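[audit] Reproducing an earlier prediction to check determinism. Same input, same settings, fresh worker. If the tokens differ from the archived copy the diff job will pick it up downstream; this log only records the rerun itself.
[audit] input (147 residues):
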Amino acid sequence: MEIILKQDVTGLGYKNDTVKVKPGYGRNYLIPTGAAIIATEANKRMTAENIRQAAHKAAKIKQDAEALAAKIGELTIEVGTKAGESGKIFGAVTAVQVAEILKTKGFEVDRKKIHFKEQPKQLGTYTVTLDLHKEVKHTITVNVVAE
């Protein structure tokens, strides 16, 4: 089944992408939740027109994302958390914590756009990917230290 995404869907695609999914996933989840529409010829033409009209706005958004990535640079942030003597932390470091630390440093990044390569469960250094735009991905380093 071919559908057109009306919003970003993690692991599937970005807004206005045409993707193929299994019929049950499309009919029972994506379409009823408003995340997608069926890719008919009329819907494809309508989406193409919307993309054309929003092209200059999209270029500005991409430029802003690239500027934010350049401003962040090779940033390393420290997250303090409670940990046991073996180095295992209580709970896990979350995207919310990383977003709050970035906000205190002057960078506004939505928590939903922060992805860990592996979820921090020990003290140490981890790589975090910031999904600033569908074409702009930026990585930062997170040091998990004991408080």
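[audit] rerun output stored. Observation attached for the diff report: The longest strand covers residues 136-146.
[audit] end
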